[in-house]
């Protein structure tokens, strides 16, 4: 049974509700300490932001369709990790977003009866963790690495795909947005974008349209081995 089929049953409405957000709205914050709800992204893109050592918000991940928010509430022993004290983050909508707010036990009960959903959930989480891990690994590396990887992550999520591997970014993906997502300085990010434009990775500077195949080749030539899964 799909989530859409689950939501269509009227009596289930006591366990879930649909929430709609406009761009730049805060959809979730760990400081609210919501312990009985899990949020399932039905439609749209969201940005995960956390606080760095200087107390500034930094962007760490893009959430898309079928992503889960407040995933940590599914832990069996929540006393082992005091997550709000360990790390604080918030989730902000990048565009119009539809999210299902579900009772945690209700959500788990439907995963139990369909192991395939468990598998898809774990697959999604593992992929997310791998992306975050690589971004963290590159956080102290050269700006060229960080910007290229940030562009690849954005192109595979919020980028609008065209024929021939061409990707156009939505308006909110500005050079400032890219620098924040790459955790790099704005001036250095602009320099890297200019270099990628000269190499033919970017087809347009102002509209930020790129050739994803050329970007991938650039990434591989920079720091990925021939055995990469990309």
UniProtKB/TrEMBL annotation:
Q: Sorted alphabetically, which keywords does the UniProt record give?
A: Activator
> Could you tell me which Gene3D superfamilies the record lists for this protein?
Jelly Rolls (2.60.120.10)
Q: Which InterPro entries match?
A: cNMP-bd_dom_sf (IPR018490), RmlC-like_jellyroll (IPR014710)
Q: What is this protein called?
A: Cyclic nucleotide-binding domain-containing protein
Specify the species: Listeria kieliensis
């Amino acid at each position: 049974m799909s989530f859409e089929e689950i939501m269509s049953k009227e009596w289930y409405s006591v366990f879930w509700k649909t929430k709609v957000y406009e761009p730049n709205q805060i959809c979730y914050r760990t400081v609210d300490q919501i312990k009985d709800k899990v949020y399932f992204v039905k439609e749209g893109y969201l940005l995960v932001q956390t606080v760095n050592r200087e107390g500034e918000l930094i962007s760490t991940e893009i959430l898309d369709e079928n992503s889960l928010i407040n995933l940590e509430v599914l832990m069996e022993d929540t006393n082992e990790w005091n997550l709000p004290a360990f790390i604080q983050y918030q989730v902000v909508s990048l565009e119009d977003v539809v999210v299902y707010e579900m009772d945690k036990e209700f959500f788990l009960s439907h995963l139990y009866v369909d192991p395939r959903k468990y598998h898809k959930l774990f697959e999604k989480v593992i992929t997310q963790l791998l992306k975050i891990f690589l971004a963290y690994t590159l956080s102290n590396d050269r700006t060229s690495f960080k910007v290229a990887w940030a562009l690849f992550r954005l192109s595979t999520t919020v980028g609008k795909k065209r024929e021939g591997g061409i990707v156009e970014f939505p308006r909110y993906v500005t050079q400032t947005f890219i620098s924040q997502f790459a955790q790099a300085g704005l001036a250095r990010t602009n320099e890297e974008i200019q270099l990628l434009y000269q190499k033919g990775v970017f087809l347009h500077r102002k509209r930020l349209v790129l050739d994803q195949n050329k970007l991938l080749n650039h990434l591989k030539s920079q720091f990925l081995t021939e055995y990469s899964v990309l």
